[in-house]
Amino acid sequence: MATDRDSVLEAAVGVLSRRPTAHLDEIARAAGISRATLHRIFPGRDVLIREVGALGLRKFATALDTAAIDDGDAEAALRRLVDAVVPDAALCAFLAGENQLFDDPEINELWEVQDERVRALFLRGQQQGVFRIELSAGWLSEAFFDLVAGVGWAVQDGRLAPRDSAYSLAELFLGGALRSPDRS
């Protein structure tokens, strides 16, 4: 029976996003394979971590494309992004918590391209009068990503129902980011 590489990566996300120091034995068990099979697919922990990070960034890029964040009203674009990214919130949690990825120049470059797209969405929203201007677009991007990661952790731990996660994320984030007449 062939082992699907992506299913092993998904199993690794489930373990590593909550326990970054988990042993390879735990990851192999979660994937339903032996440690030897895991090593044949990913010849070392560093390779596995990098591959999970790359998967997370690919899925985040796909969510950005699916949400068409460059189109239309910025609030509507952000809501589309929430809907597109929440199914992979656990990957965002992994990306937020895995320090080893910060030392990888290729991963950092991929992340910067995607973060720039989200910052551009917030800047456009500020220019449209949708988002608060006293909060930088860079900070809004960082806060958004961190809240997505928080959704990933909360769903995994059973503190947030998956069906409520997109609504909860959008309402919490937009409650603080939207410009209102009361604010200067």
Automatic annotation (TrEMBL):
Protein name: TetR/AcrR family transcriptional regulator
GO terms of molecular function: DNA-binding transcription factor activity; transcription cis-regulatory region binding
InterPro entries with a match to the protein in the record: Homeodomain-like_sf (IPR009057), HTH-type_TetR-like_transc_reg (IPR050109), HTH_TetR (IPR001647), Tet_transcr_reg_TetR-rel_C_sf (IPR036271)
Residue spans binding DNA: 23-42
Residue ranges of domain HTH tetR-type in the record: 2-60
Classification via Pfam families: TetR_N
Matching PROSITE patterns: HTH_TETR_2
